[in-house]
Amino acid sequence: MKAAATATTIVPILLYHGVSDDCSAEIARFTVAPSTFDAQLRQLAEAGYETLTVSAFRPALLGATERLPARPLLITFDDGFANFATDALPMLQRYGFAATLYATTGFIGAGPAAGRNRYGDPMLTWSELAAVSAAGVEVGAHTHDHPMLDTLPHAKARQEITRSKELIEQHLQAPVGSFAYPHGYSSAWVRHEVQKAGFTTACAVKNALSHTGDDLFAIARLTIEAGHSPEAVAAMVAGHGVPVAPARESVKTWGWRQARRTMAAGRRASGRTGRPAGAGS
């Protein structure tokens, strides 16, 4: 469909995390049951949506909208949970859907041992990530330790961005073009550093519909949570009850960043670090 006011094409982008019946309490909100995920994909397939990866969406963001399918849709996954390979990928393949997976490199396991996130949830190993890539999934970077980049000292934030890219390229022997900001948070400086590191696209969250006028380095996504029914997801994708991503950052977003920076500085001063409880992306 078209956004009449801006004459841009609306392109919904879904953000998933885990697909499992078993997860830690901390990520339960962001973990979809396999049966629900299957029903969501089935409904989208029956509605005629065709998928593409984030990098394949890039030409449209640069003006080549003729490359888009009639009903475009992107499906993305953050973090790199082990259940992506065992549960999500087989269902995506069943429906012929493409996907982009953003891996947090510090959570990835070495050898045959699964990696673990901070809450003990199993994550992909490097060999599993390579197999996922070989299956046609676009693999992007999601930092090394999953911090809120816009609250970090610049040197640390830069290291998080570049290290994740370097590790994935080293293990997959392939270039990594796309990035996703942990928790969806960025700033003008962070976005510039992501571009400077060699990424050509980057996803935020925004919980809004993306479009062909969206920011290449702050692409909007819609977070899918455990409580979203197939009908709710279909309604979101169709644009019911969700906004179109704004062209510029809101004052509210700017103010929340300042508050988080203050809290992060306080944690660093007291020697405490960590991710907010229950935080996704």
Please tell me about this protein's structure.
The protein has 281 residues and is α/β, with parallel strands linked by helices. It has a single domain (8-245), classed as Glycoside hydrolase/deacetylase (TIM Barrel, Alpha-Beta Barrel). It is built from 8 helices and 15 strands. The chain has helices at residues 34-46, 54-61, 83-94, 126-134, 154-172, 188-196, 230-237, 251-270, and strands at residues 2-3, 8-11, 13-16, 18-19, 31-32, 50-51, 72-79, 100-103, 115-116, 122-123, 138-141, 178-180, 201-206, 210-211, 219-223. α3 links the parallel β7 (72-79) and β8 (100-103). The longest helix is centred in the last third of the chain and has 20 residues, at 251-270. The radius of gyration is 18 Å and the shape is globular. The chain starts with a strand and ends in an 11-residue tail after the last helix. Mean pLDDT is 90; it is low at 1-6 and 274-279.
Total strand segments: 15
CATH second-level architecture:
Alpha-Beta Barrel
Number of helices: 8
* Rounded mean pLDDT score: 90
Describe the global form. Answer: globular
Q: What's the CATH class label? A: Alpha Beta
Task: Report low-confidence residues grouped into runs of 5 or more.
Answer: 1-6, 274-279
Q: What's the structural domain tally?
A: 1
Task: Write down the CATH topology.
Answer: TIM Barrel
Percent of residues in β-strands: 15-25%
Q: Return the structural class.
A: alpha/beta
Helix content: 25-40%
Q: What is the assigned CATH homologous superfamily?
A: Glycoside hydrolase/deacetylase
Tell me the radius of gyration. Answer: 18 Å
Order of helices and strands: EEEEEHEHEHEEEHEHEHEEEHH
End-to-end separation in angstroms reads: 27 Å
Largest sheet: 8 strands, parallel
